[in-house]
Fold each of these.
Amino acid sequence: MKTFAEIHEMALARKGADGLAAEMPSPPETPLRDLSDDRLLAEFTKRIFQAGFNWSVIEKKWPGFEAAFHGFDIARNAMMSDEDLDRHLKNTDIVRNAAKILTVRDNAVFLSDLAREHGSAARFIGDWPVEDTVGLFEFLKKRGSRLGGATCQYGLRFLGYDAFILSKSVVAALNMAGVIDGAATSKTAMRKVQDAFNTWHAESGLPYASISRTLACSVPD
C-alpha cells in the first residue's frame, strides 16, 4: 500500500500547492454534536432528494422544503399523516416524490428514537469514532431510510463529521494505492478502506476528510 506521503506528492504534482490547498474542506462552524436534531433531518433529507437529481434544483427549492416540513421539526414530521402526504404531493415548492417525502417521516422517527436512547441524535452521531466510520455508514443504512451509500457519506460531510467520501475519484485512488481491487462495496473492501484511512491518519495527522480530498486529487478527474 502506498504511504500518504506518496499520495500527497501525486496530488501536489497534479494540482500544485495552492490548488491542493483550495481543495481541502473547511472545518465546520458548529460541531455536529452541538447541532439540533432538526438540522440532521434537514441535511439527510436534502441529500436524499439530491440523489439521482440535479443538486442545484434542490438548492433553489430548499426554502420551500424548510417551510413545507416545518423547519424539519422532528416531532412534527414523525407524525406525518396521510393528509400531510397528500398536501406535500400537491406542493410545487418542493420535489413531489412520494417515496422520498416519506423518508422525512421515517428519518424523523429514527432520529427521535436516537434522541430518546442517547439524549441527542446529533451528539450520538457526532461522537461516533472516525476510526470506525464504516460502522457509522452501516448503522445509518440499517436504521435510517435511504441513508446508504453516497447519500449517507455526503450528508455526514456537510453536517461536519470527519468522514471520507467514496466518490469515483477516491475509489480510483484507493485502487491505485493498492488498498482495494475494484469497487468499495463489500464489507471486506470497506474494512480495508477504513484500515487504510486509519493508517494514513496516523502517518499524517490530517483529518479524514482532508485525506479523502487528497486521494481524489491524486488521480485524473
Amino acid sequence: MSDLAPFHVAFPVHDLDAARHFYGTVLGCPEGRSTDEWIDFNLYGHQIVAHCVGAKGDAVAGHNPVDGHAVPVPHFGVVLPPAEWRALADRLQGHGVTFVIEPHTRFPGQTGEQSTMFFHDPSGNALEFKAFADLGQLFAK
C-alpha cells in the first residue's frame, strides 16, 4: 500500500467543551485551529472538525448486523497498527468510556480478520477503530 493522503471529516457536536475533552484528552488528539463554533483535531494525521450545532440529537441513523453485532451507522474512525489499537483500547477503558461493541477480534481465522471497537462521543457520534494483523487484508474479498 502507498502512503495515503489525510482525510477530512466534519461532524456535529452539541457541546464544544465536551468535544474538546473527549477528542483532546480521552482520545489524545492534538487540537488545531478553533473558533467559538468549531474545533479542528488531528486524529492520527487526519483532520476532523467538531462543529457545534446546538441541541443534542440522535447521531446514529440505524444499525447493521455484522458478525453478530449491531454496528451503528454512520460511524468513522481510523485503522491503526495492532499495538496502537490495543493502547487506544486500554486508554479508553482507563477513561471509563462505555463501548457500544467491546474491543474484540472479528472474523478470526478468516479473510479480513480484524480487531475492532465501537463507542460514542459525548454528542452520540459513533466511532470505530480497527487493526489488521495483515494490513494487506484491508480490502480483501
